[in-house]
Write a structure and sequence with these properties.
about 5% strand, two-stranded antiparallel sheet, mainly alpha, about 75% helix, RIMC1
């Protein structure tokens, strides 16, 4: 059982390493964030090769995901979400940022649980990415000035695992603090797939 768990983590680390290599080759060579991601991936490889205990794997994997997606997010923001495929890139990053939580939730093992700080960071990062995308593209395409409903529709579109921007932002805020919803606010009902 432990051997198959190590293989699964090696496969995940291998896919992340391929992504890391593409970023390195694309001009990120020597970037401090990518170097940090490489160190997390190397530690993950070491744990998988040497230990039967896979409990550190989720933490190391999450760290590599956070570092790699941070680098990619910065590229998108710096370039102001260029091209028609920017929404697809945002969705891909959101999916990557959702994977550690999905892995933790699907696991039957008690030792594969994300720390509250890591969970909170994943929530904030998804929310910030959504905000920056909607704000940048919305201003560029003048959504807010032409028809405010367009921004509302984009914020309610499912982005990953049926989650929508409004739901992601509320979840992000409530990861440590559980707010009382406003009398007339129903975020769960406003998300089409939520």
């Amino acid at each position: 059982m432990a051997a198959s768990g190590r293989l699964e983590w090696r496969d995940r680390a291998g896919r992340l390493r391929q992504r890391w290599e593409r970023l390195q080759d694309g001009g990120g060579r020597g970037d401090a964030i990518l170097l940090k991601a490489s160190a997390a991936l190397q530690s993950l490889d070491d744990v998988c090769a040497e230990e039967d205990d896979c409990s550190p794997c989720l933490r190391l994997y999450s760290q590599a995901v956070l570092d790699i997606t941070y680098y990619e997010e910065n590229l998108l923001v710096d370039e102001e979400f260029p091209g028609d495929d920017s929404l697809q890139k945002v969705r891909e990053l959101l999916e990557m940022l959702s994977e550690p939580e999905r892995l933790s939730g699907e696991s039957q093992r008690q030792d594969l649980v994300l720390d509250v700080e890591v969970q909170e960071c994943l929530h904030w990062r998804r929310g910030a990415l959504l905000y920056m995308y909607c704000h940048t593209v919305g201003e560029r395409e003048r959504w807010m000035l032409l028809d405010p409903r367009t921004f509302h529709q984009v914020s309610l579109q499912p982005i990953s695992d049926g989650d929508c921007a409004a739901h992601a932002i509320m979840y992000r805020v409530s990861s440590r603090w559980h707010p009382l919803p406003a009398e007339n606010a129903s975020y769960a009902e406003s998300c089409p797939a939520g």
